[in-house]
Amino acid sequence: MPLTDQIQQGESKTLELKESLPKNESIAKTIVAFSNTSGGKLIIGVNDQLSIVGIDDTMLFEIQDKIASIISDSCFPGIIPDIYSVNIEHKLVLVIEVVRGNQKPYYLKNKGQEEGCYIRIGATNRLADPATIAELERQKHHISYDEEVYYDLELNKLDLSPLLDKFKHTGKPLNNEKLENLKLIKTSNDKIYPSNALMVILGKFPHCTIKCARFKGTTMETFIDKKEYSGDIFTALENTQNFVLNHINLQAEIKGLYRDEKYEIPVVALREALVNAIVHRDYVNQGRDIKVGIYDDIVNIVSPGSLPNNITMDDIFNGRSEVRNRVLANVFKELGLIEQWGSGINRIINACKNYGLQSPIIQEKNDYFDIEFIRPQITVSSKESIEQDQSIRQNYERLRTITNDYERLDKEKRTILLYLLEKGKISRKEATILLDLKNTKTYEILTEMVGQNLIKKQGKGRATYYMLS
């Protein structure tokens, strides 16, 4: 992007603008913060109104030498910036550009690591706390927080059934060897310990919660309903999704012999956003949690933690993948909850567009990641239609008591379940007409559903019929 365009976008995580040369320590703080975060440019000669005022070109070399000396004398480990001038609108601006460092944490020499380490949050430089400094150390050694071993608890003190059941459901057995390969456990001195990732998956850390609220109107002044979900990560995901679905509109249209239900927001996009929030959130910061807010106009999902330091929003939209929690992401990939690296954001956007909705607003806001689904405006006639068809929602909730994987079932199986909720029973002939399939294919589907305990078979011969289990 041309430098003039960058300037017009204003200050950001990777850009700071100054009208004149700032104080020595201010320069050093910004350079340290850029080096610890995503790199960036400090541009001198631009005022608060984003107008180019330039610098005194007779002082150019003197200013360059002064800045180089400030950075060399003030920053540790050593930072080598690229200092150059650019002529814009016949005026000279000075650019101090630094790349993301690989010797983190960087800090001010005269203050030391604890009091002189800065990071870039939004358009500001902030003093790093001890947890953030530890994370910078991990980044230097290419280790993610969730890979680290949790030595305060042995594995035999944990109930692994939520994780074991999830893998069993996907047909993938999980033994200690597999757990170790996935970096979920580690053996040390003949004892087996969980990693931070396993503790997160099992919901053993107090900040591994998701707070959900349905607010009245478009502000947070009054809430209608609120829930807080903790426990294992998979149950929290399902409960959160169900909470949202319970508070957004469900519409239906008649297709053949049954009603085809459709939520106002595509479930696939909603689930993808929730999975992203869980997998990519910053678990180092233990003072915050994931928040899901439902308003009259939007559904908002907020996940703690800005983007990983070496990636930008442009990279995200272009499909680049950078994983903060490598172990968690790998487990979700194994379970099919992540389909393809780097495809999640665009899949969310495309699902909404194909649904006829506005593209969701996806932003990095300071030190958290924010997704807003725009809810379609409901007209009076559509409101009446929804109110008259509350039985659809009730049926849908009843289906959830039959199977937690309702959205993942084939359309034909969902059709039969909806029919059985209304009619009570169905014969093979009725099912063949309902599905508009050949008799053998219908029988195959019915047999599979019996095997999945979704329905049960009653009677014999021509008198055979099927009911809900």
What topology emerges from the helices and strands here?
Blueprint: H1 3-8, E1 15-18, H2 24-36, E2 40-44, H3 60-74, E3 75-76, E4 82-88, E5 91-98, E6 107-108, H4 112-116, E7 118-121, E8 124-127, H5 130-140, H6 161-169, H7 176-181, E9 185-188, E10 191-194, H8 196-201, E11 210-215, E12 223-229, H9 233-246, E13 250-255, E14 258-263, H10 267-280, E15 290-294, E16 298-304, H11 313-317, H12 326-334, H13 344-354, E17 361-365, E18 368-374, H14 380-388, H15 390-402, H16 411-423, E19 426-427, H17 428-435, H18 439-451, E20 455-458, E21 465-468
Parallel strand pairs: 1-2, 11-15
Antiparallel strand pairs: 2-5, 3-6, 4-5, 7-8, 9-10, 11-12, 13-14, 15-16, 16-18, 17-18, 19-21, 20-21
From the structure above, extract its key features.
469 residues, alpha+beta, 6-stranded mixed beta sheet, 4-stranded mixed beta sheet, 18 helices, 21 strands, 38% helix
